[in-house]
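Now produce a polypeptide, keeping tokens residue-aligned:
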Amino acid sequence: KGGISFGGVVAFIFADLLILPILNIYRKYYGARMTLFLLGTFYLAMVIAGYIVEFSFGGLGLIPDQADAKVPMEGITWNYTTWLNIAFLTLAAALLFRFFRTGGRDMLRMTGGAPSTRHNNGDHGDHGDHG
């Protein structure tokens, strides 16, 4: 009943590539100039794809009429989806409890560091002896 258009959905999907944290990653890996190029390219692709989808679906008559849309007026109901949500929230809580109980927090702390440059007892792992 007046929500986002079909072309807007496609543009929204492309817009996920243009959020600030991802642009910052692009800047760190590729530099500022390449980041601006990627920003412009993705934005242009987003706009063009949105218009292509909007005009092609509209031209072919594939967009449903908004007057025919039915907005559900029911509130919260207890159906199978509710029970599945409760079951999986319970499962997630149990897994989180087990994770923290078995030392998961300490394991996460150890994964953030850089790899060690020291070799233990001259062991080079599976690199072999290259003399």
Observations:
- The helical segments are 6-15, 20-30, 32-59, 80-101, 104-110.
